[in-house]
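B., you asked whether I could sanity-check this one before it goes into the benchmark set. Here's the sequence:
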Amino acid sequence: MKLTIIKAPGDIPTSTLESRGEVKEPVGSPIAHIHSSSFHEHPEIGVWECSPGKWRRQVRSAEFCHFVAGRCIFHADGEKPIHISAGDAVLFPPNTTGTWEILETVRKTYVLLGDPD
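And here's what the prediction gave me:
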């Protein structure tokens, strides 16, 4: 097994992350833009960054993430919103649905934990 380490993800310049363009399924404006880079394929591990805006969550896999910058709110369908800021770690179970509300550019490291059942 290959050891994967992402050194100082908060210090990686946005210009070195690949632009993924506008978010899918935006809700209102401004329309958020995403940058990311994957550092390992299986499981997928990487750094993800998003500018302010709202959109529907697209990831169907379980996801563990650690937020290293920014502030946001995740409005999980049928649940109370969770306020997330730099330093927080979150585990999203498979098929978690809801709306992201990015208040201040967010950067996180993430691990996608396989396909949903």
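One thing to flag: The CA atoms of residues 67 and 87 lie 6 Å apart. Otherwise nothing jumped out at me.
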